[in-house]
Amino acid sequence: MQQMLDILKVAHRGGIEPSMDLLVQKEQDIPGSIAYQISRYYAQHPWVAEDTGMLVYHYNEKRPQENYLELRFCATGNKYCYDRSCSFCEKQPTNCNGQQITVDVMTFHFSATFLHQFTHNVKVSNRKDEVLAFKHPAAFTKIFPVCNKKRNILDSLLNHSYSGAMENIFVNAKIHELLLYSLECLVDDKTEGFSCKFLEDERSREGIYQARDILLQHIGDPITIKELSRKVAMNECYLKKGFKEIFGTTIFDFFQQQRMEHAKYLLYEKGLSVTDVSALLGYSSISHFSAAFKKHTGLKPCELLN
Predict the structure, then answer these.
(1) pLDDT in tens, 174-188
(2) What domains are there in the chain, each with its CATH number?
């Protein structure tokens, strides 16, 4: 999860430079239109992570011409085929027989001028309209999971048979649809778009991010939610609800996913044995570790050994 977030944070119109080989890149930056970039990178080892989206609302009252809305997505598990004639193949994208397993990064940039066409005759009455019209007075970033509707759109953008003008029409239509569904992650509060009211307080949000950092520090030394709540001085119930609201997953699932990501690194990159990795991650037995690894990655630990 953290690796996905790190990629999204720098995925701003070509700013990303991950340690992966670029397979293909498509981009458009037409003045007054949607600017987008779709980059497909070769994943040199099995990379199993939850697809993640980010909505960036940039607002500057003194420089309104610089205001923009940006959607960023990072998706894994797809495969890329160099034979573009297979674009009609029903196996695309996840069941393709191609050898190039990819990490796909997509950025869609909407200027305030472009979005004005949807709001100039609309009475702003809810959170979504407020954001589209740039009436919300503070910039913010929202992380959200990729639901099936958004995932289907992303898949269609990665694999379609159109070219030329028809491709431009198709892609822009899909991006509008993606914007529509992505705005559903916003709720109608007065400040940051959180359903948990206590997250309107910046200190509470900082506590949630601090909890995330503490979990990452305890990858090999599991910590209970009670201990975690004490460290960040937050009620257990608030901690669990706030964590799910901000990161789109439970504390337990987040921690398990991070442990398994680290396990893959230790097994594949460092060449450690299953026994050593199990011990480093704090498991009481190899069988418990192997079962957890299989559940979260779909692979047996031994399959990642060189």
Answers:
(1) 898 899 889 887 764
(2) 2-185 (no CATH), 197-304 (1.10.10.60)
